[in-house]
Design a protein that fits this description.
The protein is an alpha/beta fold. It is built from eleven helices and six strands. The strands form two sheets. A four-stranded mixed β-sheet has the order 4-3-6-5, covered by helices on one side. 43% of the residues are buried. Bound molecules: fe (ii) ion (FE2).
Length: 253
């Protein structure tokens, strides 16, 4: 039995292999275009930990990542793996994987006609957007803790919805204050030029309001998936979201 799947009884049926050799030259060139579109803005506006993680896990501009190669670098750092899955997972399978430090990772790539947006996550959103942060030890611990807490709340829809907001305003749309400015770390920002530009170019009249991170506020903050974000929450350090995930466990237990 594959040791990576041995502890995933719920998610097991969603696990697939990535057939890296099957990607076409055109698909690799779509990946390259996506990376080239994002990097100039991210070099200036992504948080340091994201940019370091990108290097540490060996992502490249010119080819779609081979997840086995990514995991060879990521695993020894934090114990996380980018684990290929067939698509959207039901919540119990998703949380089971996070609690086991396995990040469910799609292997398909968007088409050239939809460079900016795909309704469902693809390998660009999942690997370019999410996985570099998993090389950071505190973020890595936070995400596992998040999965553990949610896995224990499967019986309570209302509490899970509140935890979903914590995910949204950190993992997907999180920002952090570094050296006096707002930097991006959430995957929904990192992987989207439009969402990032909306944050970077915000004014009093347009773009999201950025509030100080507060667990209670986040757990109660509604959001719309289909629109540009109107409110974001800035942390001062990643310790803050780790503590928030621990606190959420007491608060919602
Ligand atoms: Fe995501």
């Amino acid at each position: 039995m594959n040791p990576l799947t041995a502890n995933l009884p719920i998610a097991e049926s969603f696990l697939i292999q990535q057939d890296w050799a099957a990607y076409t030259p055109d698909q690799h060139s779509v990946w390259a275009e996506l990376v080239r579109r994002r990097m100039p803005q991210l070099e200036e506006h992504a948080c340091e930990e994201y940019l370091q993680g990108f290097q540490q896990i060996g992502l490249r501009e010119d080819s779609i990542p081979d997840l086995a190669e990514v995991n060879k670098r990521l695993g020894p750092r934090t114990g996380w793996n980018a684990t290929p899955v067939s698509g959207f997972l039901p919540p119990d399978a998703f949380f089971e994987m996070l609690a086991a430090r396995q990040f469910p990772t799609t292997t398909w790539l968007r088409k050239r006609e939809s460079l900016e947006y795909t309704p469902e996550p693809d390998i660009f959103h999942d690997v370019f957007g999410h996985v570099p942060m998993h090389a950071h030890p505190v973020f890595a611990d936070f995400l596992q803790q998040y999965g553990r807490v949610c896995a224990g709340l499967m019986h309570d829809k209302d509490k899970l919805e509140r935890m979903g907001r914590l995910f949204w305003f950190t993992v997907e749309f999180g920002v952090i204050r570094q050296k006096g400015t707002i930097k991006l770390y959430g995957s929904g920002l990192i992987s989207s030029h439009g969402e990032s530009t909306n944050v970077i170019n915000r004014t009093d009249e347009g773009g999201p309001e950025i509030r100080d991170f507060d667990l209670d506020a986040v757990l109660n903050q509604q959001f719309l998936v289909s629109e540009m974000q109107k409110v974001l929450y800035a942390v001062e350090s990643f310790d803050q979201i780790y503590e928030a995930a621990r606190e959420a466990e007491h608060r919602l237990a």
